[in-house]
Amino acid sequence: MTPKLPILLLIPALAAAQPPAPAPDPRPEPDPALEALRTPFEALTERAIGRTSRRVRYDWRAATLEAGLLGGLPAELNNFDSLRAGAFVRVPVSGFLLGLEATYVWVWGSESSDKLALTPYRQPGRPDRVELDATFTLPLAEGIVTAWPAFMPAAQLVLQSHAHLRYLLYPGGFDDLDFVDTLRALFSGSLTDEEIANLEDERLPGMQIDPGRIAALVGLGADLYFQSGLFFRHEILIAVPLFAPLTESELGLGLELNLATGISF
Amino acid sequence: MPRRAPPPLAPLALLATLAAAPGCKVDFIDIGAAFTIADAAWFAEEETLFVFYEAEAAQGLGADTVIELTFTTDDGVVDWTAIDSFSPVHPHVPADCGPDRRCGSTSLHVPREPRDVAVRLRYHRDGALTLDPVTRLNIIGPGPAHTHRSLLVYGVFAEDARSVQWRARHRFPTLRNEEAQRLGLRRRFTIDRIRPEATAPDPEALANPWLYGAPCPSAPPLDWATVDTTDRAAFSPEALPAAAFDAAALCARATVQDPTGPFEAPAHARKNPEVRPAVPLRRSPIREATPVKYLLAICDRPISATHRQMQEQRLLMQGIEPICLDDFAAPSQADALVDMLLARWRRDLETVRAGGRDMILAAAVHHDDRRLSTTLERAIAALLATENDRNTPRLAGAFLLDSYPYEVTQATVGASTIWCPSSLDLDLEDLDALDPAELPASGVASLVCALPDIPQLRPRPLRPRRAPHPAQPPAVPRLHRHLLRRRSRPHVRAHLQGPRAPPRRRTPPPPALRPRDLLQRRGHHRRRRRRLLLLLCRGRNPKRRLPRRRQRRPAPRRRAPRLARPGRRRHVPARARLRLPLPARDRVRRRRRHRRHRLRRHPPARHRHRRRPGLRQHHLAHRRVPLRPHAHPLPPLLRPPHLRRRRRLPDRRPLRRHLPHELLQARLPAPRRPGVPP
Fold it and tell me: Rounded to two decimals, what is the model's pTM?
């Protein structure tokens, strides 16, 4: 046990014995070299307020898994119409979301494509297919919002940016292909000649099958979380031809509107 | 610390996307349809119009694309009609020419000669746009069956000459048989009334290679079943009976279906010709002789191991037991040597002769007495005198690889002996003055087969080579340079060396750096900036020596900080920005740069002592081993001249810092033997 009490008793005695020291300068000379490193108090306050003002109605970051159904309207900038539907799962990881989507896309022609079929010209397009997406979602802003009508409870709105890496799978494209050719086709960036020949019957009039197998999409969207974990999502994606030099795709830019609903566990 | 600005990736990605995008709307693409075959042929005897077509396109010929046909006759005009709508008179199967092709054929009964026959492709059944190619029309009038009909029938025998296959062959002016078959045309034909014929008609006399339509002899038919098929060929199920073995051919009645009715014509099947070798037995006048090898050498004293090794290697006699000539070196022993060699050679020749092949005496003579060659010639002459009178197998000749040139004097020896010297006593300059007529019988052969010894390979130190000067002639081979250096005529030297290259200009040395240039360098600039910064912050004397920084290993040079430094932008080639593959030269440079960088960061074990010499010296001093194991044991003055130059040691400062004071005073203690007190 350290004898602290005698020491404490000696401190006032020593202080009384010594002469009083001169008072230090309350405002020391500022070092001009540190001016560039100083941060105003107002800025520190604003930062603190911004960090602590996030109200959480539903903490989607604490969820384990999100799953749901989605439907979409892909708008390739050609004369063919498409509709997609499928399911998705997402996992919150370090403040963002990683997910997988599997959708089936139905494609049908339009009056313009039918008239185009009467000519010696064709327009690149994609027949019915399965799309597998690997998604990356980054939240940009979020907050608690009130909903209409009034009986709807308050919800958490998250504005997000999306990035999708899409893999196209044509079900009839692998007919009459052996195992090695099928593997080679699966890992090829563009459709092989055998696949295009197999898809000739699936091709719509006026359509020239686009050989691209992978695509990239980016866009914005918003998730509306309710307290129970139910959420709705909408997103607008833009197909960017980043892989066009690799896949020989001729579709270029495109739009896609997706609506989804799901539950967060 | 201020944050560095991130690289502008987002605008670059946007620009790359816009550059890669061909446009907002997806363009229309021409399918590029074209006809590769658009042929029509009308046969007057058959009253049939055959049409063949093949069109190709890049994704566009679907089920709605149709091929249409039109033609005009004296009876009227047949307007554009889909070919599939006609009823063909012959079988036509759907032809599969690939996913981007459309091909097929049809045959129509057209009694009168058609004209204005045209084929076209309508892109869509309901569309108005068509592709109109130039259609070739051929009219075949009446004539012989084998030249004026669209189908020939003939037969071929199998290899056993007992089975017969009957074949149909399409015959069109612009299409081959295989093409017509590929485009879907099939013909039905029937074979019956097969009968043998003793002699087949001559195809050349009839100008009818298939003998289709040639008359059949009036012989009783074989009891064979009728062959009826639409395939291109069909076998008769029966085998040829023994009574018909002598028949040269079979003749049958071939019936071909036409729009006008069945057409009958004789079809012949000729037997395969019997062939036999034109030359029953081939004899080659050249037969390899069996070499009987000997090594005649001086065994008691070595003459030249290299020379002997060369002789054994050239005659492929490694490991052979030599015949020692030591006891026959004296001139008085010449006769004894001849007798000994004759006895040995004759004994061995009789043994090898049992193999039935001619022999050749191959001997390598390893000696240093030129008189020995005369004795050997006498022995060979005596051996050949008896062998020349023999029939095959006998000794055909001799090959001697001698150590010295020798001129054969006896004609019988020179006619069948090659006396090959290992070196020539002639100068190259004397070759021009040499008259071949004056050469002895084996002189030319001796000159040709002169073989040098095996040279000893001495690899010289590697050194980089410079690219030759453009005006410099191609390099002269080493042997030529050697000969030219020793002896050669001036005009030969001028011919081989060519014009001399102009003197090479030396690159002037770079100018000396000025102090301002030194300050502009990176290190000086950094130190000066640091000194000024301390001056501003602390207000001290800038001329005071700055405290020495802690020695540490220099950090590897990275590129990312240099990229982000304000006011300095690193040049990135466009090829690297676009991730395009670099040219081979740039790839090699990058690989070498990476290798140098990796070696700087992780030097191999054999180089590490150069980077940290102090530790190595310290370590070696404690182990009491010589400081430089490679040092010569003798002092420099007693060493050979090429070893006197002392190797430059690395910097000693680390040594002084790490070694204790006692070791520094004693400098380098002499190595001690274990167990011996110092």
Answer: 0.51
